[in-house]
Design goal:
Chain B: Keywords: Membrane, Transmembrane, Transmembrane helix. Chain B: It comes from Azospirillum griseum. Chain B: This is PepSY domain-containing protein. Chain B: InterPro entries: PepSY-ass_TM. The complex is a heterodimer of chains A (about 120) and B (about 525). By secondary structure, chain A is mainly alpha-helical. Chain A has one domain. Helices cover about 80% and strands about 0% of the residues of chain A. Chain A has 4 helices and no strands. The longest helix of chain A has about 30 residues. Chain B is an alpha+beta fold and about 525 residues long. Chain B folds into 3 domains: about 160 residues, no CATH class; about 140 residues, no CATH class; about 150 residues, no CATH class. In chain B, about 65% of the residues lie in helices and about 10% in strands. Chain B has 20 helices and 7 strands. A 7-stranded antiparallel sheet of chain B has the order 3-2-1-4-5-6-7. In chain B, helix 2 packs parallel to helix 15 and helix 17 packs antiparallel against helix 19. The longest helix of chain B is centred in the N-terminal third of the chain and has 33 residues. The chains are: A mainly alpha (about 120), B alpha+beta (about 525). Chains A and B meet through helix 1, helix 2, helix 3 and helix 4 of A and helix 2, helix 6, helix 8, helix 10 and helix 11 of B.
Chain lengths: ~120, ~525
């Protein structure tokens, strides 16, 4: 017992020991930016798309905006964490950034098609 | 069941969560500490206001419902006229007295500028309070950092709060596996262990509150920080969205003068429409104009929701222009907002909010300290610049923040009323003292941040605040009890408790520094010193 045991327990619990030391710094940068900007972009897309979709299914505009925004806020921190959990940073960026762009485009299209 | 859970949260996922958890905490911990601490103070903003504004400690006993019924026409309008001082009145509002604020708070916009003031419930204008108090300083610091331009402060606070949510969720994932280890390897002889214990304890026990308060905090300002939906459906016009969602009403000035109809019948009609609620705020927009509007907000003290049910009256005819109830989703938004603001009249819940808010500070603070202690052990006795920077920032955001807050409250009791722009001097002192404490921490952090010195400062300042309140207002605790002035007594009691606690901590830390081995604190730190 004593310091050694505790230390072993600690290292056992924190195998990463920092930012995945074996990987280059740009991977970490890619994950951090995906978590901050990618996740926000995804939430933005979902909030815009959800609002348009809500109106499409008959919600009042204020209701649709609020519902979509609340849902987006709920997933935002999870998406940000997912950017760190996904095995490849590029996949994280593709899903978050790409998904955000797709949903933003979809919301624009609905907005243009429906007055 | 446990195998199922193990499959859900793989070791790789837990390992991946540790990095964002650690670095979000280290980089944003100081800011989150400020947000949680000021938010906790904001729970008792009205009470701290009474302490900082002695002139408003009027009629603490049953002041909120005087014998004569409260009249907008007789009690409020004359004060508005006095504040306008003959200049053309454009708009004004008055927050009406309630159980926690025995005075009304008015703001008047005239052709010649804006003026404001406080008045007693019977319409006596009080001298300028000369302070922003908790309502206009500590509370806005909590949600906007006083960076109003372009909502920059809202953005920074929201960003940190999303990081807090991510930190809580990643903390759950990390903790899920170590739950067992944690209890197996408990070692109370180690400071590092104790810090982790306390970090996990507050993290687990108060987790529902922390999740709720972080989420609902962003919910309140959601249309400002995530305006995607507003952009899509309202062309980015947030005001138009709010008008639509909350049932607001507005119209431009007509230019034709017209007198204001009596306000008291409108108040009676509003109470009828609310089904018996009390009015909290009265607004008059386009005063003295044919297009004037009177808006009455309902007091939300009797409900969770922040739905103020605004009712809009035609200022000339007194007819109801608009009274629109929100839809179910917007009502949910108001409920979530109400959960955060905690405007409901419930003293045990207020104390819980205050204590849980402070437990958020404990959670963040122990996280920072744990990082520092662990790095100190892993690396050698010589600590690097990075460690010292985090140490100084932790010190500045834990004890430094307390010192700045207490220094402002002491200055509030010391500065004479004649000081020009007194409220800005007070606020400036807060920031100067805070910066000073960070510089002090940066200069003095060698093997440890200067915790002891700053704890002595906290103890001295908190004690001084109690003494200064006594000296400058004559209201010592016994007199406060005799008067039934619970707000002032409560603030004094918390200050005294802060002084006592900080004194105890400072004494223990000083003993440890002077190398005495009999104090209990030593056994906690020895381990970190000899590894």
């Amino acid at each position: 017992m004593g310091a050694k045991t505790v230390r072993r327990a600690e290292t056992g619990r924190s195998p990463s020991g920092g930012a995945r030391p074996s990987r280059p710094a740009w991977t970490t940068a890619a994950r951090v930016t995906a978590a901050v900007f990618g996740a926000y972009g995804f939430a933005w897309g979902l909030a815009a798309f959800g609002a348009e979709l809500g109106v499409l299914i008959g919600l009042a505009p204020a209701e649709a905006v609020t519902a979509a925004s609340l849902l987006s806020l709920l997933i935002l921190p999870m998406m940000a964490l997912w950017a760190f959990a996904v095995p490849r940073a590029a996949v994280g960026w593709a899903v978050l950034g790409g998904g955000g762009i797709v949903m933003m485009t979809a919301s624009r299209l609905i907005g243009i098609i429906l007055p | 069941m446990s195998t199922k859970k193990r499959a859900l949260i793989s070791p790789a996922l837990r390992a991946a969560m540790l990095w964002p958890h650690t670095w979000a905490g280290v980089t944003l911990g100081g800011l989150l500490m400020l947000i949680f601490f000021m938010g906790s103070l904001a729970v008792f903003a009205d009470e701290i206001d009474r302490w900082m504004m002695p002139d408003t400690r009027v009629g603490a006993v049953g002041a909120h419902r005087p014998d004569a019924p409260f009249s907008l026409d007789r009690n409020v309008l004359p004060v508005v006229e006095r504040l306008a001082a003959g200049r053309g009145l454009r708009d004004w509002y008055a927050k009406l007295p309630d159980g926690r604020r025995p005075v009304m708070e008015l703001r008047v916009r005239t052709d010649g500028g804006v003026s404001g003031g406080m008045a007693t419930a019977d319409g006596r204008l009080l001298p300028p309070v000369g302070t922003l108090g908790a309502t206009s300083f500590f509370y806005p610091l909590h949600y906007s950092l006083h960076l109003r331009a372009g909502f920059v402060g809202y953005w920074i606070v929201s960003f940190a709060t999303v990081a807090m949510l991510a930190g809580l969720i990643s903390g759950i994932i990390i903790h899920a596996r170590i739950f067992k280890d944690f209890f197996t390897f408990r070692s109370w002889g180690q400071l590092r262990r104790s810090l982790l214990d306390l970090h996990n304890l507050t993290g687990v026990l108060v987790l529902p509150f922390h999740l709720m308060i972080s989420f609902t905090g962003i919910v309140i300002i959601l249309p400002m920080v995530l305006p995607a939906g507003v952009n899509a459906l309202y062309d980015g016009d947030v005001q138009r969205f709010y008008d639509d969602a909350l049932g607001n009403y507005s119209r431009p000035r007509s230019g034709t003068p017209a007198p204001l109809a009596p306000l008291d019948p409108m108040l009676a009609e509003a109470k009828r429409l609310w089904g018996g609620g009390e009015a909290a705020v009265v607004f008059v927009i386009n005063a003295g104009d044919a297009a004037s509007i009177v808006r009455l907000n309902r007091d939300t003290g009797d409900r969770l929701s922040l739905d103020v049910e605004p009712i809009f009256f035609d200022g000339v005819t007194g007819a109801v222009l608009k009274h629109q109830r929100p839809g179910p989703v917007v009502a949910t938004h108001r409920l979530l907002s109400g959960l955060h603001i905690a405007a409901f009249d419930h003293w045990p819940l207020r104390w819980l909010y205050f204590l849980f808010g402070l437990s958020g500070c404990v959670l963040i603070g122990t996280g920072l300290l744990y990082w520092l202690e662990k790095r100190r052990v892993v690396e050698t006795a010589v600590v690097g610049l990075g460690w010292r920077s985090v140490g100084a920032l932790a010190c500045g955001s834990i004890t430094g923040l307390l010192i700045a807050t207490l220094a402002m409250m002491a200055a509030n009791r010391l500065l004479p009323a004649t000081v020009p722009s007194r409220e800005l001097v007070e606020a400036g002192l807060f920031f100067l003292v805070w910066i000073g404490s960070v510089i002090h921490a940066a200069l003095r952090t060698r093997r440890d941040p200067p915790w002891a010195a700053q704890c002595w400062a906290v103890a001295a300042l908190a004690g001084a605040c109690v003494g200064l309140n006594w000296l400058t207002t004559g209201e010592h605790p016994l007199r406060a009890i005799a008067l039934g002035d619970w707000p002032v007594l409560g603030v004094d009691a918390v200050l005294a408790l802060t002084a006592w606690t900080a004194w105890r901590v400072a004494r223990r830390l000083s003993h440890r520094l002077s190398g005495r081995r009999d104090a209990p604190a030593v056994t906690m730190t020895e381990a970190t010193d000899h590894v």
